[in-house]
């Protein structure tokens, strides 16, 4: 579990951080990430992928990691960010913020998965199933999981009726039934198909504005529809508004391209 660090230490790399995220699959709540730097001489028994540990064991290891780690950083991406830039990029942003929150600069970072973290000018190595193969990544997985689970327990009090304290936002039958009955709350991810379907699809206003933007033949037409959207923005879900903004930008590009072709 420490061979990746050992190889780097042998090459003269002094500070190695493990980075992982949790919460890509749930229908609600943020995605959470952690970065952890472990001391060379400390061995924590039982480190593993957080999903393979019992809740009680995760809590024990979480506290032991915080007591012994040289540095721990936490990062997160909100529901709004997830809906705006998609879940993969939101997870990478959360991992980047976790590295920046460490309080020290690692010489190298070990990242769970197959994607590098952008906007981090530190050498990094991506490791598939890293939370099973690397101690610092496993530690980061545990810290991120426990932190997110505790947050979702708090969200259960803010948004009662969904059962967040039990399923932590994942798409269990209990959660989907509550979502269908109550509709989405503020922390539900509107870009996820199941959440969207629970509302019966996009709103009438969204569909009308979408048709208006796509049917615009001139920039003036586009701007007229954009003015109507701005006037009625309170009737639109934030995710719908974000999609309309993106559609407006694509329509501007389309009109400019058409104009150039005509010339």
Number of domains: 2
Distance between the termini: 63 Å
- The CATH topology of the largest domain corresponds to Nucleotidyltransferase, domain 5
Share of residues in strands: 5-15%
Overall average pLDDT:
92
Strand order of the largest sheet: 3-2-1-4-5
Q: Helix content range of the residues, please?
A: 40-55%
* CA-atom Rg in angstroms: 22 Å
Number of H/I helices? 12
Number of strands: 5
Uncertain regions spanning at least 5 consecutive residues: none
Q: Strand-and-helix sequence, N→C?
A: HEEHEHHEEHHHHHHHH
Secondary structure class reads: alpha/beta
CATH superfamily of the largest domain: Ribonuclease H-like superfamily/Ribonuclease H
Task: Please tell me the CATH architecture of the largest domain by its name.
Answer: 2-Layer Sandwich
Shape: flat
CATH class term of the largest domain? Alpha Beta
Main sheet characteristics = 5 strands, mixed
Describe this structure as you would to a colleague.
The protein is of the alpha/beta class and 263 residues long. The chain has helices at 3-10, 55-68, 79-85, 87-100, 130-133, 135-158, 164-167, 173-182, 193-198, 204-214, 219-231, 238-262, and strands spanning 16-22, 31-37, 71-77, 108-112, 124-127. The protein folds into two domains: 3-156, Nucleotidyltransferase, domain 5, CATH 3.30.420; 204-262. Helix 10 packs parallel to helix 12 (238-262) and helix 11 runs antiparallel to helix 12. The model has no long low-confidence stretch (mean pLDDT 92).
């Amino acid at each position: 579990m420490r061979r990746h660090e050992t190889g780097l230490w042998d090459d003269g790399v002094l500070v190695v951080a493990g980075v992982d995220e949790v919460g890509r699959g749930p229908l609600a709540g943020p995605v959470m990430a952690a970065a952890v730097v472990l001391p060379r001489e400390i061995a924590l028994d039982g480190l593993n992928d957080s999903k393979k540990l019992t809740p009680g064991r995760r809590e024990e290891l979480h506290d032991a990691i915080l007591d012994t780690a040289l540095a721990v950083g936490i990062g997160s991406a909100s529901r709004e960010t997830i809906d705006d830039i998609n879940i993969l990029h939101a997870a990478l942003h959360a991992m980047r913020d976790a590295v920046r929150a460490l309080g020290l600069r690692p010489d190298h970072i070990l990242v769970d998965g197959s994607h590098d973290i952008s906007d981090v000018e530190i050498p990094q190595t991506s490791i598939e199933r890293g939370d099973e193969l690397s101690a610092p990544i496993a530690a980061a997985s545990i810290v991120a999981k426990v932190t997110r689970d505790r947050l979702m327990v708090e969200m259960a009090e803010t948004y009662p009726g969904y059962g967040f304290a039990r399923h932590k936002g994942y798409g269990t039958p209990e959660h989907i039934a509550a979502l269908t009955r109550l509709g989405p709350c503020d922390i539900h991810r509107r870009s996820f198909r199941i959440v969207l379907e629970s509302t019966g699809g996009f709103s009438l206003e969204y569909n009308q504005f979408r048709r208006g933007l796509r049917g615009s033949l001139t920039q003036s037409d586009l701007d007229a529809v954009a003015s109507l959207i701005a006037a009625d923005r309170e009737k639109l879900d934030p995710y719908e508004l974000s999609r309309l903004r993106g559609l407006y930008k694509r329509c501007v590009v389309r009109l400019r391209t058409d104009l150039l072709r005509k010339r």
